[in-house]
Design goal:
It contains 3 helices and 3 strands; from the N terminus they run αββαβα. By secondary structure, it is of the alpha+beta class.
Amino acid sequence: MSFTQQLLHSRSSQIHLVRCKDLYDRAAFYVVQCPKEKLTLLRKSEQNITTLEDHVRVIASGLGHEPSDDVWKMLQATYGLSKKDFDA
């Protein structure tokens, strides 16, 4: 495993899968890149964050609770990450 893959698979990985509701109360997901601490602060924030891109790097997003197969394939090819890397 390369150093990059080891870093991405470590607990300090800065790529996170966020499941939430969009502005229209629909289930949505975002795959974002940011420090875990920043993500924690955003989740605790009282304000409604309408433009997530202003706060974190959005790698992928879509409607529904889970990313599509195409998103999983892109995450595997680009970052060496699979669904099991996001399961808690």
